[in-house]
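INFO batch 0412 | record 1 of 1 | parsing
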Amino acid sequence: MPPLSVTIITFNEADHLADAIASVAWADEVVVVDSGSTDGTQDVARRLASRVEVRGWPGYAVQKNYAASIARHDWILSLDADERVGPELAASLQAWRTGTPAAAGYRMARASWYLGRWVRSTDWYPDYQLRLYDRRRGAWQPARVHESVRAEGTPALLQGEI
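INFO prediction complete | emitting tokens
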């Protein structure tokens, strides 16, 4: 069973962080890297996460790669503070953990909340994101807009959504 670290980068996410961490309470470790929040985010993180680091803002990909670098485990699930691992995805991740990983990275659907409702149609859904990866074989790549993880080989797909 591969141990799993969840990484979350934050800045003024006190209203969202507890729910994000609760959605991955089964993980082996939750690492929060905060960029100097002033709204109580660090207090929430220190109360609920396994490890909390405060670090200046170098950019999204750099901060996410730093969070992965300080995690205890090689398998990383990267979440944003306003995201949640849904029940079906949590079950898929638990099943994944019982075997040997078949890929260096795994994609999952992402649903968006927009104008007071979930968008599960058009080109907004399923918005597949590679968020589970082996940091020895993948990393966040910077981009002008929407950084993403690139991992060796073809990514596999997990059922469920964030």
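INFO post-check: The chain is about 25% helix and 35% strand.
INFO record closed
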